[in-house]
Amino acid sequence: MLTIRSPSSSLLLLFILGIFAATSHAAPQRDPNGNGRVRQTPQQQAAALPQGLSEATDGSTILDTTAAVNGVDLRFKISAPADQFSTLTDVPGAAQAPSAAGALGINVLLHGDGGQSFFDFPNQAVQGNLLGVVILAPSEQLLWGQRTGQPSGLDRADGVADSLAVRDLIVNVLPQLVAFDPTNVFFTGVSGGALTLSGFFMPAHLAEFAGTGVLLMCGALEPQVDVVNASAFVGNSKIHFQSTQGELELLQPAIPAAIQAFEDLAATAGLSAKQIGALQTVDNTPLGGHCEFDEQGFVSGIQLIADNFANIMQGGDGAVNGIDAATVLTSVVGNEDLQFNLQVAKRDTLVI
């Protein structure tokens, strides 16, 4: 079931500003300032925002809508030229039949805890011949892999269910709404979204989307579930781990462990060190805090990497204007044990 409503940029701005002031409790809480008002959860605030159509940064169309997947409502956005949408969407200029194959691939983004990157939509517009897709976590606190309760760091008890929902949305729902090439599906994870991608989605489902790649920003977990058919993806799928010197302390051991785990999968499959290094790369040279890849801010840092997606993930040289390194595409081989700057890390208080 799909619902389409008119967008409201002013309400969106109010929500973005208000989300970080929202309570960390799952149920609505009384306003501490009195007045008897009940404060809504981030999920409730998001649900109050109208959905519908808006314009992407490249002038193409963004469709913000909701579909029922595996018993939960998943809200998501698709950014594509109008003529690539199916006639089921009522997008002006839509010209595709449902399930029509398209020439463009897609880049599916899972946001960090709290949902900031869902609202910013950093991978919108056509980039590297990829349409942009971003999905909102079906969680009270807008956490990927954790549907109820307060944020609990690396613990993602609902990672299996959320990963299957993402897989089923891509396979069963998106083809009804937009034409894309199902053999050209990339993924981007931000912080908490990167934890769910690496810990659950990649081991369970990446074999179905082999030959493309996954960009993991400011977060990663070693597989938390059995790896399904690793030989189908470790030899042809790009994996890039992007962090900073000031990464959150709880992520400082988790990211290297994830790097080692995926490198081990490739070695077990028979890849040489050179082959692994061409496919699995890592960088944490920026002197910023959590996700501050431009050494300026959380949102701008994520946008910097998103803007350079093609150059990092699709055969470019990995040079990023704004990161003081010749390339971010350093082989993971021999660089698994990332070193962090504790002085930078201590000033970082953002949630993941």
- CATH class, named Alpha Beta
Q: In the residues, how many domains can be counted?
A: 1
User: Can you give the mean pLDDT?
Assistant: 90
Number of strands: 13
Portion of residues in beta strands equals 15-25%
Shape: globular
Number of distinct helices: 10
Structural Rg: 19 Å
Elements, N to C (H/E): EHEEHEEEEHEHEHEEHHEHHEH
Unreliable runs? 1-30
Structural class: alpha/beta
CATH fold group: Rossmann fold
Helix content: 25-40%
Give the name of the CATH superfamily: Alpha/Beta hydrolase fold, catalytic domain
Task: Just name the CATH architecture.
Answer: 3-Layer(aba) Sandwich
Distance between the termini: 31 Å
Main β sheet profile: 11 strands, mixed
Describe the structure.
The protein is α/β, with parallel strands linked by helices and 352 residues long. The chain has ten helices and 13 strands. The chain has a single domain (57-346), classed as Rossmann fold (3-Layer(aba) Sandwich). Strands 1, 4, 5, 6, 7, 8, 9, 10, 11, 12 and 13 form an eleven-stranded mixed β-sheet that branches. The longest helix is centred in the middle third of the chain and has 19 residues, at 159-177. The radius of gyration is 19 Å and the shape is globular. It starts with a strand and ends in a 6-residue tail after the last helix. This is Cyclin-like f-box protein. Keywords: Signal. Residues 1-26 form the signal peptide.
